[in-house]
Queue: 2 jobs
Job 1
Amino acid sequence: MTMTSAFSSNDAEVIERPIDPITDGQLIQEIWNEARCVECSTWIKENNFKRVCLQFPDNLIAFSIEITQKLSQLVDSEVFVLGDTSYGSCCIDEIAAAHIDADAIIHFGHACLSRVSRLPVHYVFPNFPIEPEVLLDEILKLDIDSSAEILVFCDVGYHYSLDSIRSVFESRPQIKIAELAVSSDPDILGYNLNSIQLENILTCIYIGKDDQSFFNLNVSLPEKTWYLYDLSSSHQTGNLKKIDPFTTNWMKRRYYYIEKCKDAQSLGIVVATLTAKGYLDVVKHIQNLAKIRGVRPYLISVGKVNPAKLANFLDIDCFVLIGCPENRLITSRDFYKPLLSTFEVEVALNPAWRQQMPERYFVEFKEVLPNGKLFREIGDVLEEESDVSLVSGKVRLTNLTDSTNDLEDGSGRALMKRNNLELMHMDSSSTFQNRSWTGLDPDLGKSSPTKIVDGRSGIAMKYDEKSE
């Protein structure tokens, strides 16, 4: 039997996997020092917090004991460590903190800065080194108009260096800096623009790695010319590199998934957040879109999503992920069925987008809601029309149905009108109950307990068999 990379990896991959050259000593200095310790203890004392949770990503969990002990010596509060996060480590895990009735969270490492509504949060970002003078020289070498306005975005790892960057750039007023939205609602993906007019900006620069954070900003402002200033590269040159993600194969694959969603008869709505504002409204919106198109929606809530978990739902044609914009699952190719973003499902199922595509790619799920940049009223686009699948080449019926005319049969199951005015049941549970395969042990709980006996012992080449 052939094993896939979704469940295991071969020996060659383990041997050839690159090793992070950063040592433990360097890593702890980037995230924790005397100044960070004073900063955190002062925040706890000033707000009189009694139960504080410390949230670490996986690569920093080894330092949690040292940091917890040091912090506990300075404050008269109970300090806990969140050993595992419900979803992504970049998001504030209010659900896990609520299990111990915490009244505050200190988040360490990279953060997406998604807004939270229940607990106060203090961020401790890594502190990456940067030479602002060198960056300014690189910017001045660009082949652009010297008077043109430039907007600079910094990764959270350069948050502590913003003052030095700002002081060096004071002589160049045409270079604007986007502030991180640490304690306020962001204007765009975790940043405050401070009244910066985007229409006047033609060039954007991102200081950080070529990762999901940079990709989200890049596709959110596609009309700008983007440059990446990556100081983590192997050569440490930091030269500005021009990047356009819309020419990549990844973007082509996303549009292919949109077509697959149009062909789907069932849609799994995977909820990968329980704290982000508006996620329940998005769930209802997608359920309504699916019902209008005659697609069966299934609501799925799991912990950390992976290919093995979603592979259990064989009857679902594609999935939509509702979660953090920096969730890297969307970029994964290991899933057996297409995993789409809310943007892609909106374009696929909303008939208002049938004749055109949006001018940009939206990564925040709230943009499909009213007052969002991607929201479009379905309006009167409910007449039956035929469509041609770009995947199979076959003609498909859109099955548009007015959701306001749905009926109930008294059992909680929705009844939708077919084309010939007949009624059809939309009962998701009955779909799984009618399957021929119902699990590994369908008689679980019906048989008597088995007697416990001694098993085999020894080594693999020669077991000692036990006989009764």
Job 2
Amino acid sequence: MDNFWVSAFWAILPTVAVGLIFWIVMRSIVRADRTERKVYARIEAEERAKLGLDNPVT
């Protein structure tokens, strides 16, 4: 019976590992996109302020 659980663990391990790697990669992509959008909005607001334009309605 002990051998069954060891075999089951080793059978499931690759799936769990790939799922974890996928989750980490997707999380980093989403965070990078969020940060990039935030920085772009800040830069755009600074440029609008320099030109004396009104802020856009959000």
